[in-house]
């Protein structure tokens, strides 16, 4: 098992990509701590995984500081937590724009500052391929993702010998899309799948495999890996 005896913290580990990463880390032998704002869901997942649950809100300095005070030294940290708001650039509310940056970018920044990661350990951020392939009505998400990828490269130098990388997913079928009307969601996913070389959209496990690889590969730092089903080549 690649992560036997390692302590792994997954911030955003109660659903979607974070949950898949936590599950994979457990299968690889890690002791896992999951953190999330949704306490009820967090506790259920922790019981299922035999993991430790610590409620945390990445938009709060004190909450993130408390999380890592309780964790102590760790080997690997994964940040998947995000609060995304989209809309027309001219019309989207500034409150929503700030919330997106606060949750996705500044949340990762707080985690990186507070986590006590052992030398040779890793921090993995999750961005998104809109950083390099933007589309209408998603300017703030593109900007947040691009900022995260730049942050990963910079922290690979600042936090060395801790390794810092980012995974940039394409279209993934996760609960974050549950707010869409079901028919619209299915139609969007089907059309996306038909256009991709792999013939399908991504699953949370696809991204978790790359996160696991970053934790296990001691020669990987400052890397951004796009897992998008070939979206960037069409």
TrEMBL record:
One example GO MF annotation: oxidoreductase activity
Domain of life: Bacteria
Record keyword tRNA processing present: no
Regions annotated as coiled coil: none
Ranges for domain Ketoreductase: 6-175
Keywords: Oxidoreductase
Record carries keyword Oxidoreductase: yes
Protein name: Short chain dehydrogenase
Organism: Bradyrhizobium icense
């Amino acid at each position: 098992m690649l992560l036997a005896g390692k302590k792994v913290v997954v911030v955003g580990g109660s659903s979607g990509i974070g949950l898949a990463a936590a599950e994979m880390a457990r299968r690889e032998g890690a002791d896992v701590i999951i953190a999330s704002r949704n306490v009820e869901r967090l506790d259920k997942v922790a019981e299922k995984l035999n993991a430790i649950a610590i409620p945390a809100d990445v938009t709060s300095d004190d909450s993130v500081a408390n999380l890592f005070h309780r964790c102590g030294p760790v080997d690997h940290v994964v940040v998947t937590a995000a609060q995304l708001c989209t809309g027309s650039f001219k019309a989207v509310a500034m409150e929503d724009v700030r919330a997106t940056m606060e949750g996705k970018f500044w949340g990762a920044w707080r985690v990186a500052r507070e986590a006590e990661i052992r030398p040779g350990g890793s921090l993995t951020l999750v961005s998104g391929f809109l950083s390099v392939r933007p589309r209408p009505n998603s300017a703030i998400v593109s900007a947040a993702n691009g900022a995260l990828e730049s942050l990963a490269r910079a922290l690979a130098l600042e936090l060395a010998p801790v390794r810092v990388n980012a995974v940039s997913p394409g279209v993934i079928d996760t609960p974050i899309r549950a707010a869409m009307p079901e028919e619209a969601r299915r139609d969007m996913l089907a059309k996306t799948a038909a256009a991709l070389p792999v013939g399908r959209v991504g699953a949370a496990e696809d991204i978790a495999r790359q996160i696991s690889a970053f934790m296990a590969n001691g020669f990987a730092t400052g890397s951004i890996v796009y897992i998008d089903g070939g979206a960037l080549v069409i």
